[in-house]
Automatic annotation (TrEMBL):
Membrane-spanning intervals of the chain: 6-28
Full protein name: Protein kinase domain-containing protein
InterPro entries on file: Kinase-like_dom_sf, Prot_kinase_dom, RTK, Ser-Thr/Tyr_kinase_cat_dom, Tyr_kinase_AS, Tyr_kinase_cat_dom
CDD domains: PTKc
Organism in which the protein naturally occurs: Mesorhabditis spiculigera
Gene Ontology CC terms: plasma membrane; receptor complex
UniProt domain Protein kinase: residue ranges: 86-364
Length: 383
């Protein structure tokens, strides 16, 4: 055969070898230099077909919102570099549209760059910190991603408070954003209460409940002073450290409120924690957070029981209008009174968080002989 009839097989072999070599090199580089990416791919694939345990607590009133385009904000001083954050496969918890992993933040945390004075109030170092990393699920809709970016923006403006899960930094990748906060080793309060019932670990005792109640009220006083409505005050959104410090978290439903009432246009809402005016008119205020705080007290003193377990979500408004309320669990008489006042039908009949905090603090002072069990004279840093 002539030369032009001979097929150049050697050229194909060379191309295949070069392609395979390049693929191997790229794979090695990605695993070596992008641990975050590798971890996220693996862990998020696991989440793809899972329904989260907290999801039944939320009910959507705007299913058509799924077509919203996600926000893509420009990076700022809060941004964490791609090689400064390593995320492990150790899942700390999950919620309606996000999951939380243990992570390692290397270098100076952005919060110390934005507000250096925070160093006096928070235990962080400039080299390496174990942190909690909250990420949207792999199957998150555009609406979920938009809400997640809104939560990041909100947390930047929130400032630091010892009883809030404050922002340390973030990554605002439009397809895979994340929120980095201090880690709370014991997880969420609801899970901790239920594990105490099942396993009797004795980490929490009923004697701790007053302290926990005060810390949560302290966080809510701070939010109310900033005209912020949390809208999702519940035991599942309270995190606990090894030292029994609790931090209110999950600011995805938070809203600034320049007027007395905030009216929502829909979205996922925790029906069984909501006040009557929220259920009927979609109106929210600090006093609706007070109602939810009363439900949280029920969760606490009942050791994690689900509120209104016999009622369907669509029955709740009529049930409350007819005078139906939760059965108050065993607790101090003053807490019983506080709890039932939080569930007054009229918002003006409910106590405010200043009164709630003062009442619980007075009980603590009496129980502990006025020895200053709690330090309320903290100077909270503003970011």
């Amino acid at each position: 055969a002539s030369k032009k009839d001979i097929f150049p097989w050697w050229m194909i072999a060379v191309v295949v070898v070069v392609f395979m070599t390049a693929s191997i090199v790229i794979g090695i580089c990605m695993r070596k230099f992008c641990p975050r990416m590798c971890c996220c791919i693996n862990t998020h694939l696991e989440e793809l077909d899972k329904l989260e345990a907290a999801a039944p607590n939320y009910y959507s009133s705007s299913p058509s919102a799924k077509n919203l385009e996600p926000i893509n904000p420009p990076p700022d001083d809060w941004e964490i570099g791609p090689y400064s954050l390593e995320i492990s496969a150790d899942r700390l918890g999950s919620g309606a549209y996000a999951v939380v992993y243990r992570g390692i933040l290397r270098g100076i945390p952005p919060i110390l760059k934005v507000a250096p004075s925070i160093q006096l109030s928070i235990s962080l170092n400039a080299n390496e910190n174990v942190v909690a990393v909250k990420m949207a699920h792999a199957h998150a809709s555009n609406t979920d991603l938009t809400e997640f970016q809104q939560e990041i923006a909100f947390m930047k403006s929130l400032g630091y408070h010892p009883h809030l899960a404050s922002l340390l930094g973030c990554q605002t990748d439009p397809l895979q954003p994340c929120i980095v906060t201090e880690i709370c080793e014991r997880g969420d309060l609801l899970g901790l209460l239920r594990s105490e019932v099942k396993e009797d670990t004795n980490f929490l005792t009923i004697d701790d409940f007053l302290n926990i109640s005060w810390q949560i009220s302290d966080a809510l006083v701070y939010l109310a002073a900033k005209n912020i409505i949390h809208r999702d005050v519940a035991a599942r959104n309270v995190l606990v450290t090894d030292n029994k410090v609790v931090k209110l978290s999950d600011f995805g439903l938070c809203r600034f409120n320049d007027t007395f009432l905030y009216t929502t246009r829909g979205g996922r809402l925790p029906i069984k924690w909501m006040a009557p005016e929220s259920l009927e008119f979609a109106q929210f205020s600090t006093k609706t957070d007070v109602w939810s705080y009363g439900v949280l007290l029920y969760e606490l003193y009942s050791w994690g029981m689900s509120p209104y377990f016999a009622q369907e979500p669509e029955e709740m408004l009529n049930y409350l209008k007819q005078g139906g309320r939760l059965m108050v669990p065993e607790c101090p008489v003053i807490i019983r009174s506080l709890m039932t006042r939080c569930w007054s039908f009229g918002p003006d009949d409910r106590p405010d968080f200043e009164e709630i905090r003062s009442t619980i603090y007075a009980i603590l002072r009496a129980v502990n002989g006025g020895d200053g069990y709690l330090d309320v004279a903290l100077d909270y840093c503003q970011v």
